[in-house]
Amino acid sequence: MTAGLAILAAGSSSRAGVDKVTAELGGSPVLLWSLAAAAASGVFAEIVVVAPSERVPAIAGLVGSRARVIAGGATRTASSWAALDALGAHGIIAIHDAARPFATPSLFAAVVAVATESGRSVAETVRRADLAGRAVEEVDRTGLWTAQTPQAFQRPLLERARVAAAGKSFTDDAAAVIAMNEEVRLVPGERRNFKLTSTEDVAYARELADKGLVAIAAQPLPR
Questions:
Q1: Which CATH fold topology does 3-210 show?
Q2: Helix (H, G, I), strand (E, B), or coil: what is residue 121?
Q3: Which end of the chain is more exposed for a tag (fewer CB within 10 A), N or C?
């Protein structure tokens, strides 16, 4: 069963004050950080970047041959469903937010491994879990910023979630799955896998990169 990854880059950057996707971070655009980490994980047969329709040519020029760029929808959920269609050849679908540039190759590999075994997995989020690591209750996330991507699911589960959603929007793909009363397996997240939401977040990310505390993943050699 092969895995495909969608990197969501179709959202607004209004709170950050800059274009988070193309903002410079340690000498590379923010988008290329998660793209490089995903490629270095070695677990994805295909990667697509989901961008606003009017920016598809510009983002395609940025990523080059590293990924295919497709147009997203009006909401995060609609962009996820567009990615599900675009990655139709793969049994495992992973979703990651481009605004989380510090996800590591090992985190991408971990969510895919757990999803391959159990059907679905989510990097640490604000949900209660039982002793076996199964999500049993969603906690009100108002004002909280600890939900993470990447998330990964077997295709049939996401297909059912799309039908059940009936046009509704969710904060993430795990919420769409849990809305069907399906359990989600949690994978330990990473403290530095934070989201660039505000200008302070962007400044802090640049400080980490400038001090050498984080580094863009090395791209694997072409085969």
A1: Spore Coat Polysaccharide Biosynthesis Protein SpsA; Chain A (3.90.550)
A2: strand
A3: C
